[in-house]
Amino acid sequence: MKTEKMIRVAKGEEKADLVIKNANIVNVFTDKIQKADIAIVENRIVGVGENYHGQREIDVNGAYATPAFIDGHVHIESSMCLPKEFAKAVVPEGTVTVMADPHEISNVFGLHGISFMREACKNLPLDVYMMLPSCVPATDSETSGFELKDYDLSLLIDSPEILGIAEMMNFPGVLSCNTDTMSKIKLGLSHHKKIDGHAPGLSGKDLCGYIAAGVMSDHECTNAQEAEEKLSLGMHLMIREGSAAKDLKPLIPVLKGKNTSRCMFVTDDRHPTDLKGHINAMVKTCVEEGVDPVTAIKAATINTAQYFGLSDLGAIAPGYRAHILIFEDLKEFKPTLVFKSGEIVARNGILTAIYETNDTPKLRGSVNVKWIEHEDFKIPAKNDKAKVIEITPSSLLTNSVVENIKVVDGFAESNLDSDVLKIVVIERHKASGNIGKGFVKGFGLKSGAIASTVAHDSHNMVIIGTNDEDMYTAAIELVKSQGGKVVVNNGKVLAKLPLPVAGLMSEENFEDVLNECQKLKEAVKEIGCPLEDPFMTAAFMSLSVIPSLKITDKGVYDVCKSEFTDIFDV
Description:
By secondary structure, this protein is α/β, with parallel strands linked by helices. The protein has two domains: about 70-315, Metal-dependent hydrolases (TIM Barrel); about 375-565, no CATH class. It contains 16 helices and 30 strands. Strands 1, 2, 3, 4, 5, 14, 15, 16 and 17 form a nine-stranded mixed beta sheet that branches. Strand 28 and strand 29 (about 555-560) form a beta hairpin. It is elongated and about 90 Å long. The termini are far apart. The mean pLDDT is about 95.
């Protein structure tokens, strides 16, 4: 691109490559809306004002123009789609840039998993930046496929698309100055890159210590009080609306406050059914809840770009990349046109960009389990009461409760009358034979079983069921397909979504994955589950960094006490 041409076009002395005419532009610097033309040369905006002319002109007749949206923290793997299919879903919704954390696939394949995602994200109509996973594995309370050290991450830290170190979940390790944990933070800081946080409930002096270490963001706030404290101490607030963790509405009061420049939107983990409506749906919800539209748009654009140091993203102004959305109004936030680098990539909800992706690296099978027997699902009973994991709807938090269980021939069984179901986690990376066994409350199954190889963060096989036979059948089905999600009832497979790519992603197109997800949803309701997305909830039952009671392949884990617990010690 010739700077001289940009100057001449900006001055009106030469035609632009493209001019978007008569737009009501949302100005994220002044918080005002101005009617003007947008002049573009190649992939850059060069002028904003009246009477620009171009080789091509698109008159939007007073429609609203905003910067394209940015997702500040997302695990693409959670969409269960390859990146090209993820892009097909989110770009027409107005998300043109994402900060991806390949944490999930890294737990399965280590550096090879990161390389796979980097290659798979090339040549897309979506800008994909990456943060390097900080906690692989998240803790030593579970078995993952790989362990990543600071020297592993150092091989990638200087890559231009790498913006820093991803969510530092091990905040106890930070506060105790754990050598391995601190070495990763120091790696990021020494290369002048961001350190993202993950510190649910952290407060007071411990929070100060966490921030002092160099962690400058957090996406785990679930209430306004927690968010205000973190903002007051200089953190950037990543407001999350995922499939399981829905924190946007509880944090609306923060967005109605005076100081919102450090607030940004993230989706974290989203199921395919929640991709039709992405960051734009968060903006819409904010406006419906009384947040000023410009404030909401800034949280989806410039605030995120400035936090990550992307100085040419997030605004419609000279010198910025021409990532632009066109809306008929500032209520529905369904873009009629999506521009990326000055080219239309989506129109009226349909991707129009034609692109070819590189061949991605080949991955081996990742479901490697020791031979499974029916007896592996039995739990010898010590009494008829047990500690049970109680789920919290729309949250990653769980409770520890004591419930009655059934005892049959000396073995503990599910108690359907009180919605207490057996839950089992089988290690699937190294065929170690590790099997964690316990009980969970809140899934509501009346018969059958569900199972998945998507189980944060190490992604071992999680099975929840009403009886051992269906749980066994579900586990075997996942081994056969080398990963996926399945619903079984009376020995019959009701629905199944194979996920052969790391046990996390499908090789099929987005529409087919969406269709199979709908079948899973219908099948799980058929066996009595009232939850909107039980598989997403199940996926977080093994996340042993979120309070209070979880289960891994090593057993039931008390997060608050940082120790494994005997479920019969009540």
